[in-house]
Structure prediction request, 248 residues.
Amino acid sequence: MSAIGGIINFNGAPVEAEMLLQLGNTLQAYGPDEGFEVNQNSIGVVYRAFHTSVESRLERQPLVSLNGCVLAWDGRLDNREDLITPLHDELRNDYSDSSIVMKAYQKWGSSFPRRIIGDFAFSLWDPNFKTLFLARDPVGARLLFYYVDKNKLIWSSRLEALLEFPDLELEIDDEYIAGYLSLHPGEGLTPYKNIHAVPPAHLLIVRDGKVRCQRFWGLNPDKEIRYRTDHEYEEHFLDLFSEAIRTR
Prediction:
């Protein structure tokens, strides 16, 4: 599991290199293999790698596309072949997960997360639309937190990395504490009011200093599966279970 993070200043002020490096250093323990930063004036992106596949060892992140988009990807694609087929010409023999995800965004736009199967959290900055995207997989296997005020937004794979910033205003969130004690914290809450978790199956869209959260995946309550016998249900379950294991 790698680590990602970043800072965006809403007023257009350059991101301080020291702040970006500090964020990267706090994430080093979760991405011990290598680390890089991309600083583009008012936005800076951090990646710390923890290689778990052959493909990940061949990539360098944050990934910067030819049109300036910046991607930091912490995840594992389970439907690589399904994505490679429609993206084959654009990939140009680069089949790393980060390259596939970047090309998926460029082909399908902000709707692309619904096409991804796997465990993931990512940040993607598109300078052409001056828009930042943050997202987590439907199950929420990978973590992603963010702090936001009127001047900036800071995001990180780890909550403790955000707590290292000395000028953040922290206030205990009573609603989270109540949910924690009842074994069901509210979706998107953390122990602190100004620090939020990107909810599973949601895409956070940050543009012009405004933050909007939208769901990109959900169960279909209208879909029904009806069989005549229990054995048919068992066969269907085993087919789905086998496919899930084979894909991973």
The chain is about 30% helix and 30% strand. Helices lie at 17-26, 54-57, 80-91, 97-108, 159-163, 174-181, 230-247. The longest helix spans residues 230-247. The radius of gyration is 19 Å.
